[in-house]
Design a protein that fits this description.
Number of strands: 11
Helix content: under 10%
Order of helices and strands: EEEEEEEEEEE
Structural class: mainly beta
Shape: globular
Strand content: over 45%
Radius of gyration: 13 Å
Number of helices: 0
Distance between the termini: 40 Å
């Protein structure tokens, strides 16, 4: 069983930055692709970014490309999302997610149903 715990959310002004962290329990983290998603009130959960097990391959949603950076530290079982130049429309609950299938070189998964484990989410609010 895998458990994911996000942290780092909060309230920030437009243009500011936040760094989200997601710590994973279990032995599969270092071989698993990881993703970040977000869900705003009244909207569906949407893809933000994904990173391969090694960190060598990364994919971003167009809406965050150039502003957000996903990274991972396999020694710490942690994936990060550095968010810069935040906009009010970035306001959402942010979730990390894990794909069980191991050693996917190019994780192009952008759909919610492609991920097997989810954290409880962390709230990010960007004020204008």
């Amino acid at each position: 069983q895998v458990q994911l715990v996000e942290s780092g959310g909060g309230l920030v002004q437009a243009g500011g930055s936040l760094r989200l962290s997601c710590v994973a329990s279990g032995r599969t983290f270092s071989s698993s692709a990881m993703g970040w998603f977000r869900q705003a009130p009244g909207k569906e959960r949407e893809f933000v970014a994904t990173i391969s097990w090694s960190g060598a391959w990364i994919n971003y949603a167009d809406s965050v490309q150039g502003r957000f950076t996903i990274s991972r530290d396999n020694a710490k079982n942690t994936v990060y999302l550095q968010m810069n130049s935040l906009h009010p429309e970035d306001t959402a609950v942010y979730y990390c997610a894990l794909v069980s299938r191991a050693f996917i070189t190019r994780p192009i998964m952008t759909r919610v149903d492609e991920y097997d484990y989810w954290g409880q989410g962390t709230q990010v609010t960007v004020s204008s």
